[in-house]
Automatic annotation (TrEMBL):
Protein name per Swiss-Prot or TrEMBL: Dihydroxyacetone kinase subunit L
InterPro entries with a match to the protein in the record: DhaK_L_YcgS (IPR012737), DhaL_dom (IPR004007), DhaL_dom_sf (IPR036117), Dihydroxyacetone_Kinase (IPR050861)
Organism for this UniProt entry: Methylomonas paludis
Molecular-function annotations in GO: glycerone kinase activity
Tagged with keyword Iron-sulfur: no
A biological-process GO annotation: glycerol catabolic process
Upper taxonomic lineage: Bacteria, Pseudomonadati, Pseudomonadota, Gammaproteobacteria, Methylococcales
GO cellular component terms, A-Z: cytosol
UniProt KW keywords: Kinase, Transferase
């Protein structure tokens, strides 16, 4: 993996585009069992990252992840802000240097997702973004250890994210506002899981096209 933060402007632009395209559909999901403001909050963070993209693109990975995490913490409201901030700040915290192998990134991502679990006091099966992040972290480690090609890894990661978000439909929400609905939360896809899946798909597509 030769990816550097120089590709960050393209990554955040792809994320912004896919979230904008799916904003109405995701807001409808969120209004069914949440506060209805998830996309609005997320877009505030995306806009902050777009504004800082030139600076971030010139940093090494630890500094870039730290910058991303701090921006998300200050710009994204709701639970998503603190959880995504935790993810990126822990990527920075556990990173040893500015170079990345697939195996090393898989290790870092798994540690970061574990930190999100601890911060949110949640786990897989509770109808949250973790139902996407956890299976993606597991698949990433499995594929990296098996020596799969980057194209195969990106395809597997996208498939894992899609399966994760689909699985939230039949889950009982036990975290956040949706948990107050009890059994009525079953039958609805979690909006946070959906945006996590959309962003992972956008990032992996850009990386695949870049040949990274």
């Amino acid at each position: 993996m030769t990816l550097t933060p120089a590709l960050f402007p393209a990554l955040i632009s792809a994320i912004a585009e896919t979230i904008t395209e799916q904003a109405d559909a995701v807001t409808e999901l969120d209004q069914a069992i949440g506060d209805g403001d998830h996309v609005f909050n997320l877009q505030r963070g995306i806009q902050a990252l777009q504004a800082a993209a030139p600076e971030i693109s010139g940093l090494d990975w630890p500094a870039a992840w730290q910058k991303i995490g701090m921006l998300l913490m200050s710009s994204v409201g709701g639970a998503s802000g603190s959880l995504y901030a935790t993810l990126f700040i822990n990527l920075a915290k556990n990173s040893k240097d500015s170079t990345l192998s697939v195996v090393e990134f898989a290790r870092l991502f798994d540690l970061a997702v574990t930190a999100v679990k601890q911060r949110g006091k949640a786990d897989a099966g509770e109808k949250t973004m973790l139902d996407v992040l956890i299976p993606v972290a597991v698949k990433l480690q499995q594929d990296a250890a098996a020596g799969l090609t980057l194209a195969e890894i990106y395809a597997d990661v996208r498939a894992s994210a899609e399966a994760g978000v689909a699985a939230t439909r039949d889950m009982l929400a036990t975290k956040g506002r949706a948990s107050f609905l009890g059994e009525r939360s079953i039958g609805h896809i979690d909006a946070g899981a959906k945006t996590a899946q959309l962003m992972i798909a956008a990032v992996s597509s850009v990386l695949a096209q870049a040949g990274e």
